[in-house]
Amino acid sequence: MADRTAPGQLLLVQQLVNTLDIASGQDALTADGGLAAFLDGHGLPRGEGRADDGTDEACVLREALRAACLAHTGAALPHAAARDLERLFARAPLVLTVDTDGGAALRPAPELTGTAVLTAAVAAGIAAATVDGSWARLKACEAHDCLWAFYDRSPAGRGRWCTMAVCGSRAKMRTYRARRAESG
Fold this sequence. Notes:
Layout (H helix, E strand, L loop, with lengths): L9 H8 L16 H8 L13 H17 L7 H12 L3 E5 L5 E5 L5 H19 L5 E3 L8 E3 L12 H20 L1
Antiparallel strand pairs: 1-2, 3-4
């Protein structure tokens, strides 16, 4: 099976989108301590002391990103998802950092924590991936009962399912059966 793991900074985006398993309904972000565990697992500061831990906002970010990834397969990006991303990214400033060898990168502003730093890290990853052309290859499976984020490594970049062996085969079989029913 081909590797469907996103490269570099897109991995954070992919892992965030995949915190919700549509098929099972399990949501790693809304589980007890889920957002904190996700932030800790990615080395992002939590922002202790907030009455609201930011889980609802992180879920909005996740679902808007899922919609953007689905748009990479040819679906239209809903206006609400685009507005959510614009609103969240506007509140998560980035700074340009330059390291000792002269390399530059966008990073979350140092004072950010919690969902704001997560949003800024996602924005930085998308910005870098847009520059190198890899952002459009992070997609969401077209299967309505899956929607898993995957990285399309196919030469043509036209993958539509997280795996051909499961979701792709099911979709093709449904299409085949529908055609046979029409003709028979």
